[in-house]
Task: inverse folding
């Protein structure tokens, strides 16, 4: 898989990351991602920290912004059968550049499909989310049907779960998608 956000976050081997939800009352919500050594890799802040509904930020362990993700709004969005989220990374000059678009079906009787689709860059590169995120049982699958990441339940806890990423997968992209899933399902990044 080609890097979506940065090749700095791609690994040559499969990795298991642990996600810990932060309570809204303590840190404004969001979550922290650690590696197997319990070292912080990413922090995700939602509207409890940012103060803006429909906006998320993925940061590296040093607090540098990697992805700005926001929900599209406006009249066209209101008439659409999908909610649309856009993810932006920052180029070397600090300017935002579009990285991915995630579409999830709005909860309505007009929604034909329940699939969540992520489009990446120019061309027809896309990913789908299979399974149900709130149950901590879902996968991000590429257009060829290959699983690139899996969200799995951590036994006995809703606030901690694990994410297994396959080799050569951009973990910043994966956790950007997971941040949106967390928000869509009203979890730690939502207001």
Result:
């Amino acid at each position: 898989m080609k890097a979506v956000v940065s090749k700095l976050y791609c690994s040559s081997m499969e990795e298991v990351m642990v996600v810990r939800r932060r309570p809204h009352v303590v840190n404004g919500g969001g979550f922290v991602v650690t590696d197997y050594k319990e070292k912080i890799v990413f922090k995700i802040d939602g509207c409890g920290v940012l103060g803006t509904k429909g906006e998320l930020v993925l940061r590296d362990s040093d607090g540098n912004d990697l992805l700005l993700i926001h929900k599209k709004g406006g009249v066209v969005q209101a008439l659409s059968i999908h909610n649309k989220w856009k993810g932006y990374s920052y180029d070397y000059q600090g300017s935002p550049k579009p990285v991915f678009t995630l579409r999830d079906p709005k909860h309505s009787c007009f929604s034909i499909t329940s699939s969540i689709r992520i489009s990446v860059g120019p061309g027809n590169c896309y990913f789908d989310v299979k399974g149900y995120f709130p149950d901590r049982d879902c996968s991000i699958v590429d257009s060829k049907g290959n699983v690139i990441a899996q969200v799995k339940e951590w036994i006995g806890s809703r606030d901690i779960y694990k994410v297994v990423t396959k080799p050569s997968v951009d973990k910043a992209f994966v956790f950007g998608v997971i941040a949106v899933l967390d928000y869509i399902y009203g979890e730690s990044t939502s207001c």
